[in-house]
Design a protein that fits this description.
Elements (H helix, E strand, L loop, with lengths): L13 E6 L5 H17 L3 E4 L6 H9 L2 E4 L10 E4 L6 H9 L3 E4 L3 H15 L3 E6 L4 H7 L6 E5 L15 E5 L5 H14 L13 H13 L5 E5 L5 H12 L4 E5 L15 E6 L5 H12 L6 E5 L11 H17 L14
Parallel strand pairs: 1-11, 1-12, 2-3, 2-4, 4-5, 6-7, 6-8, 9-10, 9-11
Helix pairs in contact: 1-10, 7-8
The protein binds iron/sulfur cluster.
Length: about 350
Amino acid sequence: MGSPKPGGGTDGRRVLLAAPRGFCAGVERAVTTVEEALELYGAPIYVRRQIVHNKHVVHALERQGVIFVDEIESIPEGSIVIISAHGVAPSVHQEVARSQLGAIDATCPLVTKVHNEARRYISDDYDVLLIGEEGHDEVLGTLGQAPERIHLVNESDDVVDMGVRDESKVVWLSQTTLSVDETAKTVARLKRIFPLLESPPSDDICYAAQNRQAAVKQMAPECDLLIVVGSKNSHNSSRLVSVALEYGAGSAYLVDGAMEMDEDWLRGAGTVGVTSGASAPEFLVDGLLEWLAERCYDEIEVVRTATESQKFALPRELGRARDELLNFARMDGDETQRGLPPSIEV
Ligand code: SF4
């Protein structure tokens, strides 16, 4: 850890606050979808897997009557289920239909874009090398688009024989939240093995992951300590820790909030960097900044590397359901009537 730097607050202590940070457009959309579904249908609403990978978001929704389940089979017939932002394999959509559930799909449109790309290449007879983290919900959903023709390449593992059928028809795709630099290295390794490897027409690593990494890259060299607010299972958040260390932060930790901070981390630290993953609510960052201010890290300098304006429309099923419920209530004269609108088939 370096020594305190001049020009900061008390004894040179200061905070560099990354911008952009926190909620991305896909997470905003997924959380709003669940909240609107609760308002339209009342509790309980079922969500397959965590709607986004943040335990505060999940617990807050649980308190409002959301039930998170691992598998569709545990949801009672006739219920409403929301598909999480990470997306699912077609087999899960088929299971939802078989189980007589009303489904609202909150898959992030940028994940859907990767699914569509994968299916397009498969229909053109390619094999797909998917760079991603084994077992991650998003990766399971993308692999499930064509399990026999999409081969998982773990970011850090050696590439082994993957059973590619024709080395002249192979393309790489990736999980949306990977480290930009690590992915470039993995692609370079793959190209040594498959010289004719094709790249997707546009980046699969989403704007939010790239922007949060860029801000960390800029401030890490000045940080004795860098704190990322996010849950342990949030892939984009854990990547921010690796990027911080790679770009020169003295140390870096992932915390769910101020309650996980350790006083020892501050020993000798002049500049503390703060950022948050794409699924971490801003009130957790506020809590961390208060915790730091109580320890004299009360000078805050914002490090902005991009401005985000991306927004995604809510799932179509929600708009249709809202219109139909309103019409139904108007006809019935009872706006509190609860029921499944015909647009969400059960
Ligand atoms: Fe979508 Fe990117 Fe947010 Fe994931 S991190 S939900 S891909 S915008």
